[in-house]
Amino acid sequence: xxxxxxxxxxxxxxxxxxxxxxxxxxxxxxxxxxxxxxxxxxxxxxxxxxxxxxxxxxxxxxxxxxxxxxxxxxxxxxxxxxxxxxxxxxxxxxxxxxxxxxxxxxxxxxxxxxxxxxxxxxxxxxxxxxxxxxxxxxxxxxxxxxxxxxxxxxxxxxxxxxxxxxxxxxxxxxxxxxxxxxxxxxxxxxxxxxxxxxxxxxxxxxxxxxxxxxxxxxxxxxxxxxxxxxxxxxxxxxxxxxxxxxxxxxxxxxxxxxxxxxxxxxxxxxxxxxxxxxxxxxxxxxxxxxxxxxxxxxxxxxxxxxxxxxxxxxxxxxxxxxxxxxxxxxxxxxxxxxxxxxxxxxxxxxxxxxxxxxxxxxxxxxxxxxxxxxxxxxxxxxxxxxxxxxxxxxxxxxxxxxxxxxxxxxxxxxxxxxxxxxxxxxxxxxxxxxxxxxxxxxxxxxxxxxxxx
Length: 453
Ligand code: ATP
Ligand code: MG
Description:
Blueprint: H1 19-35, E1 39-40, E2 46-48, H2 49-55, H3 61-66, E3 68-71, E4 77-80, H4 85-94, E5 104-113, E6 125-134, H5 139-155, E7 161-167, H6 173-186, H7 194-202, H8 213-220, H9 231-246, E8 252-253, E9 265-273, E10 281-287, H10 291-294, E11 302-308, H11 309-318, E12 331-335, H12 338-353, E13 358-360, H13 367-376, E14 381-385, H14 387-392, E15 394-399, E16 405-409, H15 414-434, H16 439-449
Parallel strand pairs: 1-5, 7-8, 12-13, 12-14
Antiparallel strand pairs: 2-4, 3-4, 5-6, 6-11, 7-9, 9-10, 10-11, 14-15, 15-16
Helix pairs in contact: 1-5, 5-9, 15-16
């Protein structure tokens, strides 16, 4: 196939017929974040490569294998963001957002780029929604984060997504654990992949996250981090669980979760589903109290999560969740002749300024073809304007569902008249819905929405 009309491997188009689903999900996420006091942050699609090396971590899969890194014409090394945490943290420091007072709570919706083997739920360009909190060390902040993610899944009506929780301790209490892991994996060196062999010295915990079958088998019997965490970290973990219980959010503790970033501390979590095959982690996050300091800032507790929207879409599809379709056209205006075309265009924009979805012909179709088109787009009303109508100063507005017509003025009162008609028809629908037994309720509703009329 001609490369001109073929998208790059691992990237996907979101087509007009599907985009409403994305908008719905994105709106819901935005609302959830805003309701919890988070403000949106938008950062560039590329950053200096060193930012990701430092924050995501040199020993991670992302940095070692997956980044889109290139030199610019000016000789700078630039990387397309593989995730959203690094850019947000960089902006937090660069613009001293902390000086507005702590905690700082932000969310993002963005595309990410990772050079991976493309398959269902794993793309090279994909979308993430994420939330970040800076300056909150309390376990309540962890619980707030987790509950917000959980609430998004709940509001989307998703079942069969479970929350798996773990604590990987702080830098100090992790020393003993790291030593225990080193000893264990050193005894099983021959079963580890090359990447994991290189991790053995620098960051043996990464081995627990390896997707290689043989490494996974060895990892299954490795020492468990929860046996090594210090009393403070243990108390923090207990407190997170208490607040999750208080918010009625269910979880299971899974000691094998370590997450992909190097600077995670204490709480780590994933939301996992079995309904979309192997790429079942829909959301991952946790606390990274070392991150801001690692980027040159003051020691600042930080935490966050990111969810993969493509995977979320797959779960929704697998579970048969339908999202509300976009509003259909309110009115299609079909003009006949030059003068009517001008009038139609004038009315069209009056309607649109009043927030109606209005359409008219823009391709030069005849009347029959126009009406066919009005039907196709599901227009609720249509109106033909010819010379006679222009002379009379009125036209016939047709209810496309019932076929009923009513005369409407073609002057400055048109939009108001149309407004009234659509309102009456909504009342009629309400009346049908409620039946005559409920006239009082109906009067109440109409009274409230319509100034006591
Ligand atoms: P995985 O173990 O599946 O590779 P990850 O640990 O690399 O995931 P994170 O860096 O934690 O993923 O990213 C957060 C979320 O972003 C993941 O849980 C997933 O839903 C989504 N995600 C990550 N990589 C991809 C990808 N290549 N394509 C689509 N979604 C992705
Ligand atoms: Mg990955």
